[in-house]
Amino acid sequence: MEKENFLDTLLQMSMNLQDLTRISKIRFQETSLSVAQFRAVSIIAHFDPEGITIKQLSGILRLSPGATSKLVERIVRQGVIQRIPSDIDRRSCHVVLTPLARQITGDHSQVAENFFDRLLSDVPEQEREIFRLLSRKFNERLWRLMEQRTGNI
C-alpha cells in the first residue's frame, strides 16, 4: 500500500467533515438552513457572544461582503442570528447568535463529539489525547491564519 502524504490525508478529512456537516444539517432541518447558512452560523458561533462583522465573516467564507450580507439577511429572517449595531461605527454591525442558534450549535457540538467518540473508540486513550491536542493546535493555527488573511478578526 502506498503511503499517503499529509495533504491527501487533510483533504480526505476535510471531505469527511463536510459530509458530517451535511448529515448534521439534516438533523436540524427544523431551521431550514442551507449548508452555506449552517456553515456561517457555525463560524458566527465561534465568535459568540461578542459577534463578528460582515466584513470579517466574508473573509472567512471567501465571499464578497455583498453576498455575505445577503446570506446573513436570510439567516436573520429565520430568527437564527441577529444584527447588533456597533457602538463605534454606525455603518457597522456585529452578527450574533440567537438563543435558538445557541441551542442548535450546542446540539451540533454534542452530535460531533459523539461521532468522534465512536470514530476513535478503537484508538488507545493516549493516542486519542494526542489527536485532540494536535487537532486543537491545528485549528488554532488555522484561525490565526484566517485572522491574518481577513485583517485581524
From TrEMBL:
Keywords: DNA-binding, Transcription, Transcription regulation. Residues 3-140 form the HTH marR-type domain. GO terms for molecular function: DNA binding; DNA-binding transcription factor activity. Transmembrane segments: none annotated. It comes from the Bacteria. SUPFAM superfamilies: Winged helix' DNA-binding domain (SSF46785). The keyword Chaperone does not apply. PANTHER family: TRANSCRIPTIONAL REGULATOR, MARR, TRANSCRIPTIONAL REPRESSOR OF EMRAB OPERON. This is Winged helix-turn-helix transcriptional regulator. It comes from Victivallis vadensis.
